[in-house]
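ok trying this again, last paste got cut off
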Amino acid sequence: MTMKKLRWAMDSGFWDLDMSTPVTLDGKARPVAGDPLPLGVSRGARLSRPRQIDFFQRFMAAPFVPSFTPDRGLALERVFSLPLPSSIGERWFATLLGQFNIQKFVTSIKKDGTLQMSEPSWLQRIKKHLSEKSLYAFNLCSELLVTPDDTLLLSYEGYGDEKNSRTKAVLHHKFPHHNLIVEAAGLERFVDHNGNHWDVPFSLAADVASVPADSSTSYHLCINHVMGSPNEVQTQSAGGAPAALLPGLCAKCAVSFKKNANIWTSEAPKLSMVQPYDIFLSDPHISVSTLLGAVVTAFVGNTSIRTQGEHDIQYLKGSGLQAQAANSAISADLFASAFFSAQHGNFQRLFLDLTRINVRLDFPSGLKFLSGAARVGYNLYNSQEPSWERIETLCPKATLSFQQQIAGPFSLRVDSEVALDLKKGNWYPVMNDPVFAVEYALQVLGSAKAVAWYSPKQREFMLELRFFET
């Protein structure tokens, strides 16, 4: 999992979960699917961005919510609830989210010298700057609870300095043991593994996933259809658009089995009459989890060029089993993960009562790992020195998460990929794409938190609400 996803649930390492990002007003962007495309867990229903900002305004006395992106700078956001009849007010939530680019406004008046209040027309000049459409953006969102198991979200997003607008419709249905998400979006925003942003004219996706459990078998089916040529938003990539964003259809079917084991659980009594700041973070423990699965992916259309140049079935070449036809392709692979989690403290006392460390090791391509292990073993058997490229195929993708309570409900969290650059002979681990966050636990809600995070690599800052996430 790349940390740009900013999803800190430990089971999210193997699926294209929506990324949290301030580059869009709805606070989300979809990741470009990589190879291989295995299974994680259900995405589930998340609290929409307008509802998050509405919560900040109503219950946390925040009249504006700040965000920062490299292209737009510092901006302030506020939500206005639209009046609805009382008979349907509990089932229908309609809002207008407005964004004001304060950094661009300050920069413009500095260039114009408007801050010189000795001039008689300084007030008129400020009003002129405030009337600039490029300072504003809006998101009109409507969430309707159709039935107790069906939720429909419609949104329209526009920017004053752009001609293009974004539209989205999302249907979420809860089955007894599965979740269904159907999403159609015009001008959908995608982010690739290098952090480049792409706009796709139209995207249609259907996602069916079994409800995850602590130790169980999970199933996942996702179908994604892309129309139109992708357009890179900022810089131009040397390799062009990712193959997964070219017009065509991609279908993924995966199954995985997860097993949890508790090594140690604290039996020390908790403080009586003191509620933990987060009930999900109140039990000291040491535990491990393992996940093993398989995935089959089919491509139809231009997306199949990702396997261009490969004919027939190629065993252990690239990632997994692959077959190529004129306008289609199919691939299959294995994947595995190992999780380690340790916590000290009950998160009840005022100071330093919570220390958490999570480590995840991902093997995204099992067949590629087996192929690399066979080649390295062959080299060692023949007294040959294996190449760094082959050794790197045996190294898992490592992700480290560290959280420490500072005082009361406040805690500091750092999430990062950890990598070794073996080609340069560097055996010391280095942090790759770290994310720094300050969390404020909302004790009255049991397990909820306000999160302020910053990504130095992406140069993005955002405030979010998280419910029932660890």
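PB: full thing came through this time. Residues 1-13, 35-44, 307-318 have pLDDT under 50 and may be disordered.
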